[in-house]
Design a protein that fits this description.
globular; 628 residues; 6-stranded mixed β-sheet; alpha+beta; Ubiquitin-like (UB roll); 29% helix; homodimer; 30 strands; Nucleotidyltransferase, domain 5; 24% strand; 8-stranded mixed β-sheet
Chain lengths: 628, 628
């Protein structure tokens, strides 16, 4: 028997295999925080054709069942079957392109001029066995051996030594002691295990994005990334953006639901990684977490409520090195978790991680760092000063609030070119095939092309009658980008969509210009722009300049950084010096609260224009539009 | 309706009251770790007469049911009823005699020249509320306020600040911070609560005896003991002495059972105390635990297995200040628990507590400290040195292994005088009434009287025919101390009993003489003897000397100290200086392992005689026995 995917990939199936286990064997992992017991309801797949037997439908709704959804772990094909895997069900383990990028991380870490210095370190101890005359207790014996190595203070939490007596005797008094050195708490033991035990000391670098969760499994002794995994943040089912999540968190039980969702995402990835590489999860003793302020609070089960209430003060900006068991991570319960410091309610640890990863604070060069994802954050500065702000761009570049919007995943229109004569568009779709919607970079392309070809004016309004593709939509005029008779729905961009995008790009640009002005500088002082986030991968700089979203400075000054949050998490997992540097970056960052800034409001209004009311700021665009 | 107890106390009963709740209302507390839900099976009482309805018999065995036992919480009298309360079911809360003794504890603490300095302290903090310009996070705000008071480092575990944001806002930014100052871990927050909240900061002093558990509830701000409670250590059902408990602990699941048993005992007492005094258990933020090495290990769920295996090394001699939630105590989960340091496998924290409570290490006077309970421990020394040993006296003074032996509880013969002419005994029974058995002090009395009256010889053998009361017993000759036709069984002391007691007293005496000899001193160098433990309360010094159990030195040098373990626990709950002193005592104590000492074996054999083979050591006894 075989399973055929919508991608036309074909997977062989043994009798009595569930769809879940057949896919897993073929290296296609599904989200299943229950481990495939039918209780978490996350491993949904859609059966398009073929007979099957389902042991249970778990928590699936009647509507979901009607649409053909089944739980992969509870469903057993009776013959060849064809299925579709919703992207939310997919756990990406060992993404080859992404892994290839991690090959250079050890070198990148070393390029900072620091050595490997993970925050959970190990040391070997060979203790003399007790005798009637050398009769001190086990812990005192351990402490004496430490003192002989010059270590005179070490805290021992209960969990770190609960099994010590047995371990020492079984290991013939030759053990490894894993411990942390924490600036706040001093030295503390994490675990004691036999020196003879196989396996290294491992750690996780984790990026908790509002939309996606990425995990790197790294060997703390070599710094190498062994494998990576990613999935959608399951919190999405409670809302797309941080505000709806905060609202949900402040409702009865909501905080725990959100925490459980993201922790189970990380655990599902981790469980798959350790299984794939036959690693004892107890040997993963450290995790480094980067996420925005809301994500970090929810991860630790801390109330994020005050984040959205004046004066927008989070409970924690810096996080102690709490234990993995407190977080609920499925690694060594005594393993410690480093959480990136946050700057303010809307500028979080992901940005500190990104700034660290960009090295902008190590150079005299004036740089702009921007991470435009579900939220938009920017930082401007160099090795002497750094200012930061949240742009409140809103999630429309991620597809939210846009009629045909979607995330930058397969099926999304990522690029649009409009013929200046026929005014017909040609498009490029991520992953090829028929488009399902349009993602952020596609939207920016479309708007800039519509502006260049005169389909819209500088206010973002359609010039009606200019093209057959402009039509009356339900709520406002719209331009048809793609139409296919087989599809129920055309892919369009409406005037209301464009208004939303104008507000978003204005927020980004005016955030940048406010910070630059606050610093007493002009836009062209920016010598380098680091573009981070998934969005950055597909962004066409020229077109983003054309719509006035980013400064009109030479394109060679722009550098795409990819996911800087996970890079920063990796760096701090492995280097004490870089953790200190992250703390220093956080303490140096001056946060500007744009929501109460008069200057920002003025800048914002000026930026609600294509590209801007002050065309002097966009000389290259003025030239292209042939404006005076 | 009414309940009549065997003590003839009468308790009124409302309709639909369970026996449990009627007794509780009358101030008679039963052990019920489930809170009276019928699941723990501990609140057994025996119905002697009267009709009742039982909702359930829980875990009672068929045999128990047949004997009239019911669960008090599940049993509802239908008419007047007469019951007996087994001592194991009884929780003693607010024992008036014991409480009266605690009145002087604050003065006693002060007599050490130290102030109140509990290990969980509180400080008041008034924080400025956050504003748009003063926009640091809550924890940084708290840390800033601490820094203003000169406190620049404080650790914050997750539990101590999980609800911080809400608390700060509800308390209008005016809060109390409870924290510890730990020599190992530095300063750490315990809890944050509104300054306006009612109630003080409370702590528990706990003595975990092998047989009984005693809890003092103290006000940490005044040092006063608010109330006390005690109960039998429920571990008894797994064995009477530490060895059987250790064996049980090393069998599957046994350790957890033992831990749960004693923790639920402490919790049952604590729950009753807080209910009686309307105290929020979250305001109990500290506990100080004294127990022997095995009890301390089991309390923390640590494997005590190595304690009984050569070379008898426990896992822990000193215990970090772990959290109440780790122990499972029903107080503030973040509250910290101080555990007395232990010296060796068989000289534990209860002895360190006792030595501290005796003040013997504060004086030049050479003192002997002895605690003869289920186990026997001794210490000899002064302010310059101190030696200690475990006597392995065995539990026979507690009634175990003695035909008619019992603990020193109501019904026990505590004193015996034998008429030198008629050779008939007169007895005194604890609590009056007919005797149920004989306790340690009664046994010592009986042996010394039998020796004085020539019923036994110096080897402990009966001179047959000497008295009608000497008869052939099942296994050996025996002396009938009490006979009552209504009783099924006479109360006797057999030759085998006497052999056991001789071994026990020889172990105690030879332990003392070994330590004295090791120190290069003679018995009469001992200037002061502190007798601790429940046993001490009833001990007749003269008679204990007569049988050669304790040194033949003037009686005025003996001081009865009562339960020094709980006194020490109280002292360390309230004074940092005394915790340091306890640590110093523990580090100064030289432990002598008697089980491998040749000298001890020689001394022991010499002491298996009444009073001793070397009569020069017992001049006063020689005089009374009119020996040459």
């Amino acid at each position: 028997m075989e399973i055929r995917l919508t991608s036309n990939e074909v997977i062989q199936l043994r009798k009595d295999d569930s769809i879940f286990s057949a896919l897993k064997e073929a290296g296609i992992y599904l989200v299943a925080s229950c481990g495939g017991k039918g209780t978490c309801g996350k491993c949904k797949v859609k059966v398009i054709e073929g007979n099957f037997e389902a042991d249970s439908y778990g928590k699936l709704t009647g509507e979901e069942k009607k649409s053909g959804l089944v739980l992969a772990c509870q469903t057993f094909p009776l013959a060849d079957i064809r299925i579709a895997i919703p992207k939310e069900s997919r756990l990406v383990i060992g993404d080859k392109i992404a892994i290839s990028k991690t090959k250079d991380l050890v070198a990148y870490l070393k390029s900072y001029g620091v050595g490997l210095n993970p925050f959970v370190r190990t040391m070997s101890l060979k203790l003399p066995p007790p005798t009637i005359t050398d009769n001190i207790g086990d812990l005192d014996r351990l402490k004496r051996a430490l003192a002989e190595q010059g270590i005179n203070s070490m805290g021992f939490r209960h969990g770190s030594i609960a099994a010590m007596g047995k371990t020492l005797r079984e290991a013939d008094w030759t053990v490894e002691l894993a411990y942390i050195e924490d600036p706040d708490d001093g030295r503390e033991a994490v675990s004691i295990y036999p020196s003879a035990q196989e396996g290294s000391n491992y750690g996780l670098a984790v990026d908790i994005g509002t939309t996606t969760v990425v995990v790197y499994l790294a060997d703390l002794k070599t710094g190498e990334v062994i494998d990576i995994g990613s999935t959608y943040n399951s919190q999405i089912r409670f809302g797309d953006d941080v505000i709806t999540r905060i609202v949900h968190a402040t409702e009865g039980g909501g905080l725990q639901e959100l925490k459980d969702a993201v922790v189970s995402d990380i655990n599902t990835i981790t469980d798959s990684l350790v299984e794939k590489h036959s690693i004892d999860p107890a040997m993963i003793q450290a995790a480094s977490i980067a996420g925005n302020t809301t994500m970090a609070h929810i991860f630790w089960g801390l109330d994020p409520g005050s984040i959205r209430e004046m004066p927008y003060i989070p409970e924690l900006n810096s996080f102690p090195l709490w234990r993995a068991s407190t977080a609920g991570l499925s690694i060594n319960p005594e393993g410690r978790v480093y959480t990136f410091p946050c700057i303010a309610s809307y500028v979080g640890g992901d940005i500190v991680a990104g700034v660290l990863a960009s090295k902008m604070t190590r150079s005299e060069e004036l740089a702009l760092f921007m991470d435009i994802g579900t939220n938009g954050e920017i930082a401007i500065g160099n090795n002497e000063w750094i200012m930061t702000a949240a742009c409140s761009a809103g999630p429309c570049f991620e597809g939210s609030g846009i009629k045909c919007g979607m995330r930058a995943t397969p099926g999304a229109i990522e690029s649009v070119i409009i013929d200046p004569v026929t005014l017909d568009p040609s498009i490029r779709v991520i992953g090829g095939g028929s488009p399902l919607g349009i993602c952020g970079s596609g939207m920016i392309d479309a708007i800039s092309e519509m502006l260049l070809t005169g389909i819209i004016d500088q206010k973002g309004k359609f010039l009606e009658g200019k093209s057959d593709r402009i039509r009356r939509g339900e709520d406002s005029p719209e331009y048809v980008i793609f139409s296919d008779r087989r599809l129920e729905k055309d892919i369009v961009l409406s005037e209301i969509d464009i208004e939303n995008l104008l507000r978003a790009k204005a927020a980004v640009y005016s955030g940048i210009s406010t910070l630059i002005t606050e610093a007493g500088l002009a836009m062209d002082a920016i010598e380098r722009v680091y573009v981070a986030g998934g969005f950055g991968n597909y962004l066409n700089i020229g077109k983003a300049v054309l719509i006035g979203m980013i400064p009109d400075i030479p394109e060679e000054r722009y550098t795409f950084m990819g996911n800087t949050s996970i890079t920063g998490a990796y760096l701090c997992l492995l280097s004490k010096e870089l953790r200190n540097e992250a703390a220093e970056i956080a303490s140096k960052m001056t946060y500007v609260e744009l929501s109460v800034s008069k200057m920002f409001m003025d800048e914002y209004v000026s930026a609600l224009f294509l590209p801007h009311t002050n065309m002097n700021l966009f000389p290259s665009v003025a030239a292209r539009l042939m404006l005076p």
